[in-house]
Amino acid sequence: MGRSIDTKCLHLEEDEGLFENYGAISFPIYQTATYAHPGAGRSTGYDYSRLQNPTKNHLEKVVAALENGTDAVALSSGMAAIALMMELFKPGDHIIIDSDLYGGSIRLFDNISVKNGISITRIDCYKDDIESYINEHTKAIYIETPTNPMMNVTDIEKTAKIAKAHGALLVVDNTFLTPYLQNPLDLGADIVLHSGTKYLGGHNDTLAGFIVTKDEELGERFKFLLKTIGCGIAPFDAWLILRGIKTLGIRMERAEKNAKALAEWMLEEESITKVIYPGIKEHPGYEIMKKQSRGFGAMITFQVESKEFALSILEKVRMIKYAESLGGVETLITYPTTQTHADVPKEIREKNGITEATLRLSVGIEDVEDLISELSAVFEEIKNEK
Ligand SMILES: *Cc1c(COP(=O)(O)O)cnc(C)c1O
Predict the structure, then answer these.
(1) Residue 102 catalytic?
(2) Model confidence pLDDT, tens digit, residues 226-258
(3) Nearest CA to ligand 1 atom 7
(4) Can you give the CATH number for the domain in which 236 is found?
């Protein structure tokens, strides 16, 4: 039997090169752009760091192992990963995307993919009849589950079967749950994407992205694309992400525990009109998540009574930071309308349920009592000002 995910965050099955590296427990940073060759036509396997760099390659092996994939490429950001993945497609191809996605992904599909002649159909994959949107040119279905920020849950296994039946790829952006809580490749997905900037790095200090697959041919194509386009992660950043991954398990468990407690508190808080967290039994995706994930993550979306109330919260938070991004040890609060989802057309935002009174919380690993008391104090102050 293979090792558990907690152990895989720390150790590859083989400690490659350990003793050539003086037994260094922390994998070294190979800060080199190029490599000497021992002779004409001979190579150590490392020619140029755009593709081959030991620190980057080690990180790729770790992430592939965590996702139960055979191949991974490490990119300079999550968006670089998505942009590189889209190079699989050519003009005339058709892609089905979920309508509630990370704002940057929507911006990429709307502005870059469409310009490149790829047609896009936007549907609600968690509830629409996906099959009825597939045509002879459909090459992929692209989802996040749960979605950003509305936390819609799509059945990965079911969607993978539909994709397979029509010769299309299922691509899953697994940033929100991480391989610690969900492994889409095991459920039939063909490609898993990550913004490693979020939970994998975990410290709000480094940008990174990943593409993982268990199909050898796809793996080779991604390496070719990476070598050709050149958006791989830098060695030092790869090392920071490797360090972050070592604590992925304990960070995810703590953040999720905090999120559950916070979501329960929010349900009772009168200033909050709606709590969207898939770990609440009433959430429509709860049962599917129990089936396909090992947890519910630490992202909470919530609504307050008005835009003014939402903006006041952003003005008044102190320890909780008003900032874009998610998945770090620090709790962040985000205003999707003007931040992560500013470039999503207003009518789509509204259709998805993102209003000017919607806020998103990335719950960190602070003491949850301190998070609750800060939010209580903020709500109290706002109510007293009215
Ligand atoms: C942040 C994010 C991205 C983009 O990743 P970057 O590292 O910021 O480029 C993609 N998908 C999801 C779900 C994200 O949260």
Answers:
(1) yes
(2) 999 999 999 999 999 999 999 999 999 999 999
(3) 78
(4) 3.40.640.10
How far apart (Å, rounded) are the C-alpha atoms in residues 5 and 269?
A: 36
- Compute the distance between CA of residue 331 and CA of residue 335 in angstroms, rounded to an integer: 14
State whether 218 and 237 are in the same domain.
yes
pTM of the model: 0.97
Instruction: Find the residues whose C-beta lies inside 6 A of ligand 1.
Output: 77-79, 102, 104-105, 144, 148, 173, 175-176, 195, 197-198, 207, 209, 326
Q: Would you tell me how many other CB atoms lie within 10 Å of the CB of residue 381?
A: 13
What is the CA(369)–ligand 1 centre distance, in A?
Answer: 29
Per-residue pLDDT, 243: 98
Are both 281 and 157 inside the same structural domain?
Answer: no
3-state DSSP helix/strand/coil % of the chain, to nearest 5: 40, 15, 45
- pLDDT for residue 1 is more than 70: no
Residue 241 and residue 292 share a domain: no
Tally of structural domains, the chain: 2
From ligand 1's centre to the CA of 101, what distance in Å? 10
Per-residue pLDDT tens for 56-87?
Answer: 999 999 999 999 999 999 999 999 999 999 99
Q: Are residues 162 and 287 in the same domain?
A: no
Structure tokens at 82: 């998505």
